[in-house]
Amino acid sequence: MARLMTTQLLLLVWVAAWGAQPRTTRARTELLNVCMDAKHHKEKPSPEDKLHEQCSPWKKNSCCSFNTSQEAHKDISYLYGFNWDHCGKMAPACKRHFIQDTCLYECSPNLGPWIQQVDQSWRKERILNVPLCKEDCQRWWEDCQTSFTCKSNWHKGWNWTLGYNQCPVGTACHPFHFYFPTPAALCEEIWSHSYKVSNYSRGSGRCIQMWFDPAQGNPNEEVARFYAEAMSGAEVPRAWPLLLSLVPMLLRLLS
Ligand SMILES: *[C@@H]1O[C@H](CO)[C@@H](O)[C@H](O)[C@H]1NC(C)=O
Ligand SMILES: *[C@@H]1O[C@H](CO)[C@@H](O)[C@H](O)[C@H]1NC(C)=O
Ligand SMILES: *[C@@H]1O[C@H](CO)[C@@H](O)[C@H](O)[C@H]1NC(C)=O
After folding, report:
1. What number of CA atoms fall less than 13 Å from residue 114's CA on the CB side?
2. pLDDT in tens, 26-73
3. Is the CB of 67 inside a 6 Å radius of any atom of ligand 2?
4. Residues 107/64, Cβ–Cβ less than 8 Å
5. Pocket test for ligand 1, best of 67, 68, 74 (most atoms within 8 A of CB)
6. 13, 60, 86, 162: least surrounded by Cβ within 10 Å?
7. Ligand 1 test: best mutation among 50, 78, 80, 106, most atoms within 8 Å of CB?
8. Nearest-CA neighbor of 128 among 147, 155, 146?
9. 67 CA distance to ligand 1 centroid (A)?
10. SS (H, E, C) 108-139
11. For the whole model, what pTM was predicted?
């Protein structure tokens, strides 16, 4: 009798050990090829052959719809009603970076490793500390030097009474470098640390590119795989507590 139960128990241990395998694997794949649960994202990434202009690099596999890609190029779009020209007209060279930033945010299926849950009325998930390639941040900052703003965090604190953001009372319009003295100040503070400026360069496979040529494929796929691997490698096999809890029972049966 004891022997039969021991056999069953060993079988259970075996099942527990192997049953846990897919779970750890799944935790990793959930970081890859996913869309965040936010305001306009599709549920899952899929091809979109008509994506508009600056969003077109994501055609082959995208979290944004055609409509979202078009809206991403508009001022005070239906996406967020955001007014880039809150301190006079934003220079086109500067605005194209904000459009690209919107395309990356809305369309990229490679931001999984940096998706975090949030308790916000307009979205359930956000991105945090996405390692943006240093050149992409540097160029964004340089091209915006001639534009003006009145705040360093563009997520919070605006006056929305007219349906689009206006500078709140008590703030003043200044050139970008007044609120963003360094490239990192711009890329990290503007969207509450959605980005972290990486020390890695474009093409390194270790930082996310806002800009890329789709003819060479999407370089961010490899980057997401690298960080997903690094993150899941730190995970302890989940079956261990269960296996350890079975040891006393096993010993009791064997004695
Ligand atoms: C996108 O969809 C929204 C909501 O249905 C609509 O208001 C908007 O006009 C559409 N934009 C384009 C460019 O089709
Ligand atoms: C918000 O903007 C409206 C319209 O420009 C203005 O009348 C109001 O005083 C502003 N309120 C605050 C708190 O800034
Ligand atoms: C960043 O990269 C540069 C050049 O590749 C290197 O010299 C420097 O030590 C790095 N800094 C950090 C903080 O890793």
Report:
1. 23
2. 344 588 899 998 888 888 999 988 888 999 999 999 999 999 999 989
3. no
4. yes
5. 67
6. 162
7. 78
8. 155
9. 6
10. CCCCHHHEEEEEECCEEEEECCEEECHHHHHH
11. 0.78
